């Protein structure tokens, strides 16, 4: 584990911290579509990704979801950090977007390292900043962009995260994550296909 940690995080963390992480972290391999965190669940550890991707969503009282942002290699979740330090219940849902390998850091270690390692403190603060900017971007997208612009941004983001031009999602799944109806998504996707931006396949969208 240490050699892989050094490969992915050696530029961020000093050797002593890498050694501590390799000793106490819980290694997990999870398949695409696995729910790692549910709303209302107490957070006992925080994730550090080795590869793969995780999508972070909000859910309303009726169970409808809204995609907030993605986590990739080198990322951790600011929402998780907040819940860890405050012993609060999770306000988000985390689901793997791809097959993912990650390390889970116990909350008590996370708090100790904030005082012990400057690199860890910088990592946490930078994570807060990046996630905050992504949340602002999500708010701006919802408030100021039309649904067709939101849909195009969603497809481009998915393409960037997965590294694949083929977005393997149904129209209903896309509608859930954009908090709209399947009919609206189907209509907009058909329009985008006519404009030559995408190509529609069975349960998939090919981004041109």
Describe the protein's architecture and organization.
By secondary structure, the protein is of the alpha+beta class. It has two domains: 2-143, Jelly Rolls (Sandwich); 147-207, Winged helix-like DNA-binding domain superfamily/Winged helix DNA-binding domain (Arc Repressor Mutant, subunit A, Orthogonal Bundle), CATH 1.10.10.10. The protein has eight helices and ten strands. The strands form three sheets. The protein has a four-stranded antiparallel beta sheet. A three-stranded antiparallel beta sheet has the order 1-7-3. Strands 8-10-9 form a three-stranded antiparallel beta sheet. α1 (2-9) packs across α2 and α4 (107-116) crosses α5 (118-144). The model has no long low-confidence stretch (mean pLDDT 85).
β-strand percent reads: 15-25%
CATH class of the largest domain: Mainly Beta
What is the terminal separation in angstroms?
A: 38 Å
The second-level CATH architecture of the largest domain is: Sandwich
Tell me the number of structural domains.
Answer: 2
Protein structure class = alpha+beta
Q: Radius of gyration from the CA trace?
A: 18 Å
The order of strands across the largest sheet is 2-6-4-5
Beta strands, count: 10
Q: What is the residue-averaged pLDDT?
A: 85
Major sheet size, sense and barrel closure: 4 strands, antiparallel
